[in-house]
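ARCHIVE CARD
CATEGORY: sequence design from structure
SOURCE FIELD: tokenized fold
FIELD CONTENT:
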């Protein structure tokens, strides 16, 4: 839903596709963007379709992320639109997604023709996930294999988030506190409590709430994107909005499954950049 929301906010889908092609893995996937309506609101929906595999990663299909109406927040308050994301912890049976470690992902990104800031932001996000997974599972960083995050679709999600963030050329990103959800989620390691342990690790020092919905509302991938990009967390910021984008998820829930982002002007601008 992050990619969809930022495209709806104004990032050109053709620009995003052209930038993602610089990863030289575009033979593995196809990015599809289309308008969609959720609860009477028109927004954008994004699919990552993997070539030659019986798997599709639909952004927002399983777990609405932390800023849409789905989790009870009125907005993802941003000074650019706080990028957010969801990830399916239970890929379709029969799919053969590549299991890549941090070194594999680093090589793909660093050998690409992407701009250096996009490379560094992408690696910042991936490293946060790797460090959290290593701690949770008691492994060395180089031993962590991303059963889901290293798959092609998540490389698209995370590098795409970095591409869109830098394309907006904003001064700061503000986010509302993150709703984590509740219940349990099935992943490669079996059943895990919500929030997932890696999500908890990534979000230390960041304001969160729990129990707003009985499913996973913030995944490790989404947590890492927010932790890397958000400059400040404000529940009710004073801002003058200039434009709004809606990223529409696929899952139909009682609360609208969407991510709302604003491009806004504010009187107060966070001085510090995203945490490193």
């Amino acid at each position: 839903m992050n990619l969809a929301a930022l495209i709806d906010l104004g990032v050109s889908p053709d620009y995003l596709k052209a930038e993602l092609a610089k990863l030289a893995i575009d033979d593995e996937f196809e990015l599809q963007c289309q308008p969609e309506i959720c609860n009477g609101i028109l927004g954008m929906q994004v699919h990552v379709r993997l070539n030659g595999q019986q798997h599709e990663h639909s952004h927002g299909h399983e777990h609405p992320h932390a800023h849409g109406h789905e989790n009870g927040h009125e907005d993802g308050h941003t000074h650019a639109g706080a990028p957010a994301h969801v990830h399916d912890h239970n890929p379709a049976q029969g799919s053969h997604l590549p299991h890549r470690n941090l070194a594999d992902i680093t090589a793909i990104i660093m050998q690409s023709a992407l701009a250096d800031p996009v490379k560094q932001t992408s690696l910042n996000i991936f490293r946060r996930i790797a460090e959290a997974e290593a701690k949770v599972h008691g492994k060395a960083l180089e031993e962590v294999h991303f059963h889901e995050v290293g798959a092609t679709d998540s490389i698209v999600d995370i590098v795409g988030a970095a591409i869109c963030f830098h394309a907006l050329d904003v001064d700061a990103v503000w986010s509302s506190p993150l709703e984590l959800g509740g219940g349990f989620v099935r992943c490669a390691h079996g059943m895990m409590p919500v929030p997932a342990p890696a999500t908890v690790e990534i979000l230390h020092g960041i304001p969160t709430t729990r129990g707003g919905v009985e499913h996973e509302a913030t995944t490790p991938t989404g947590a890492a994107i927010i932790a890397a990009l958000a400059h400040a967390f404000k529940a009710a910021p004073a801002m003058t909005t200039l434009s709004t984008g809606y990223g529409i998820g696929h899952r139909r829930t009682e609360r609208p499954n969407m991510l709302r982002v604003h491009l806004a002007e504010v009187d107060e601008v966070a001085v510090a950049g995203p945490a490193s």
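CARD ANNOTATION: The CA atoms of residues 81 and 94 lie 36 Å apart. The longest helix spans residues 116-137.
SHELF: design records, drawer C
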